């Protein structure tokens, strides 16, 4: 579990996070949602230590990131997997080489052990047999799977995904969401996903944190979101006709 307590962050005198508190639960897909510019990325970067907040606590199962020394941060990093926007694969490395990379950086595994672990992860994400291909030779959805395999290579306790569906078609997006959700449950990972994607929100939102103008305005899940009376959240999630109709359908059926 990750607990974020009363986080403040500003850039050049402009307050971006204004006392955000949230809990991200173990073994669940935790979503951070909000409009563009609301502070989602700054919040996620603060949690992983890429941005240092002026104030607050970031507790990884009770361990405060902001109080850690360099060695403790390095050790915590081995427990964290990250999936960046795009896929951020190394173009000059094969699929297998990409997945082996964190193992090379953070473990003393032998070549054979590394290969075996990387192949296991590739198989887990449904990419058996693609070891020797280069990122440019595979589709965007497959690249995302390689990035997921790389992110889970070190068997992380915590997994951070920044807009995992960006650039993917709706069908592939759902498959990637399902994969992230399955992995989260199977390995009991605390998964935190930054997303704009309403399909993801309504599909895998087990714990949803809504950020609006630097404040945490709502916390709930994909069931509760249909009943929200929060105007900003409702406007954000049900902005399109399609999602408005989904909402009406769900509420109508719940009352029958
Ligand atoms: N390094 C930085 N320096 C100055 N301002 C920044 C920096 N990083 C973020 N900001 C500002 O903080 C605000 C929140 O940005 P953030 O990237 O967190 O938004 P977001 O909710 O993730 O948006 P999007 O969904 O478009 O990625 C924006 O106004 C942005 O310009």
From TrEMBL:
<dbReference type="InterPro" id="IPR017871">
    <property type="entry name" value="ABC_transporter-like_CS"/>
</dbReference>
<keyword id="KW-0067">ATP-binding</keyword>
<protein>
    <submittedName>
        <fullName>ATP-binding cassette domain-containing protein</fullName>
    </submittedName>
</protein>
<keyword id="KW-0547">Nucleotide-binding</keyword>
<dbReference type="Pfam" id="PF00005">
    <property type="entry name" value="ABC_tran"/>
</dbReference>
<keyword id="KW-0813">Transport</keyword>
<dbReference type="InterPro" id="IPR003439">
    <property type="entry name" value="ABC_transporter-like_ATP-bd"/>
</dbReference>
<dbReference type="GO" id="GO:0016887">
    <property type="term" value="F:ATP hydrolysis activity"/>
</dbReference>
<dbReference type="GO" id="GO:0005524">
    <property type="term" value="F:ATP binding"/>
</dbReference>
<dbReference type="InterPro" id="IPR027417">
    <property type="entry name" value="P-loop_NTPase"/>
</dbReference>
<dbReference type="InterPro" id="IPR003593">
    <property type="entry name" value="AAA+_ATPase"/>
</dbReference>
<feature type="domain" description="ABC transporter">
    <location>
        <begin position="2"/>
        <end position="238"/>
    </location>
</feature>
